[in-house]
Amino acid sequence: MAKELYELNEAIPVGEVPKKMYAMAIRKERYGEPKNAFKKEVIDVPEIGPDDALVLVRAAGINYNNVWAALGIPLDMVEVHAKDQNDHSGVHIGGSDASGIVYKVGANVKNVKVGDEVVVHCGMWDVNHPDIKSGKVDPIVHSSNRIWGYEVNYGSFAQFTKVQAHQCLPRPQHLDWNASAAYMLVGATAYRMLMGFPEHTVRKDDVVLVWGGAGGLGSMAIQIVRETGGKPIAVVNDPGKFDFCKSLGAVGVINRKDFDHWGMLPHWKDEAKYNEWLKGVRKFGKALWDIAGKGVNPRIVFEHPGESTIPTSCYVVDRGGMVVICAGTTGYNATVDLRYHWMHQKRLQGSHFANDEQCTAFNNLVLEKRIDPCLSKTVSFDEIGNVHQMMYENKHPHGNMVATVQLG
Ligand code: NAP
């Protein structure tokens, strides 16, 4: 018979599910700086439904989404759980990446069984919706899509996590538990951005501009471009990150601190300011040509900083090229000079996480040892708030961070 609660360093026999678990919880009254927002609490182990799996978490990946959850902006996640899922627990248990062991499965589950070692992707949707079952709608575009461990409660910052069984994929056996938890959210997101929008998938020799090349998304994007034969050019804020980006396959790296034209586009009627901006963006374009060759523009720009960089991205992307964006870390106002946009037939494409096929395709690249998860820092369960704080302050190390959860 399972104990009521196990310690984090205590072995939990496979398949034995306790009533209670330790979780790193965010509550409304703690919204604010991540270092104070997370607190270790004892809560009930969640019940699972017929299409779900309960996974014992060995390690949990750290992602930017739970910086947002800690701050309580742009969404109040406790409210979201209450309104969207009728979950009035008053806690947000984040964590959108995990490696672990399946401890329980629902009646309809066929793809995993108790004892399987898995990594978990964070895409959830109504698996029984007719439009999803029939393949009419891409599930990650469907209105029922939610991100586990952000929009849906009981993510991986806890001893057990409740997931839909289709989220479970085989764990790479050449990696340890920590490295296995490091890559899926950022990797699958980057994979969809670069491979999910025909005709703008990466082709041999395509130049791809990657913002934040040393970050979570960027480190995965550089490697995917390398593996698909393209030429990644990274942007970072410090020459100390150049070697890291080059080691992943970047053919060149640009220091964004060498430029100062960032932010929203000046109004086109304000000629003086607009011309000043043009000077700045042309200087950036020249830095790109110094690496790619004169006249060679990026066919794809991999965007996520948003407000501060999107005018530049839309300007430098090649005629007929695509700027693909999955976030607005610096703000949400996208200002674009439409004259260049239509005349040069450019595409500005939104993207959000990935579907099962894209997660599997990316996981296969890791299983085949073609992509390194770029695990740079592993911390204990108690340090989860502090590493989100580092991320919030953009002081985190290159690549991806992970917290070890259940040791036994
Ligand atoms: P990360 O590891 O913190 O990397 C972000 C990078 O952005 C940093 O390394 C930084 O690089 C760069 N950056 C920061 N401020 C910048 C600025 N003002 N201008 C240009 N670059 C800047 O975070 P991440 O995991 O890659 O995630 C990045 C964003 O994407 C977050 O907002 C996250 O929530 C979002 N995201 C969305 C999805 C989705 O599915 N929609 C999935 C994953 C992540 P330098 O300072 O070196 O330039």
Helix content: 25-40%
Describe the global form. Answer: globular
Q: What does the oligomeric state look like here? A: single chain
* Count of DSSP-assigned helices: 13
CATH superfamily of the largest domain: Medium-chain alcohol dehydrogenases, catalytic domain
| Low-pLDDT windows of residues | none
Distance between the termini: 18 Å
What top-tier CATH class of the largest domain fits best? Alpha Beta
The Cα radius of gyration reads 22 Å
Distinct ligands, ions and cofactors found in the model: NADP nicotinamide-adenine-dinucleotide phosphate
**Per CATH, what is the topology of the largest domain?**
Quinone Oxidoreductase, Chain A, domain 1
Give the percentage of residues in beta strands: 15-25%
Average per-residue pLDDT, rounded, comes to 97
Number of domains: 2
Largest sheet: 7 strands, mixed
What is the SS-derived class?
Answer: alpha/beta
Key phrases:
408 residues; alpha/beta; Quinone Oxidoreductase, Chain A, domain 1; Rossmann fold; 2 domains; 6-stranded parallel β-sheet; 13 helices; 18 strands; 28% helix; binds NADP nicotinamide-adenine-dinucleotide phosphate
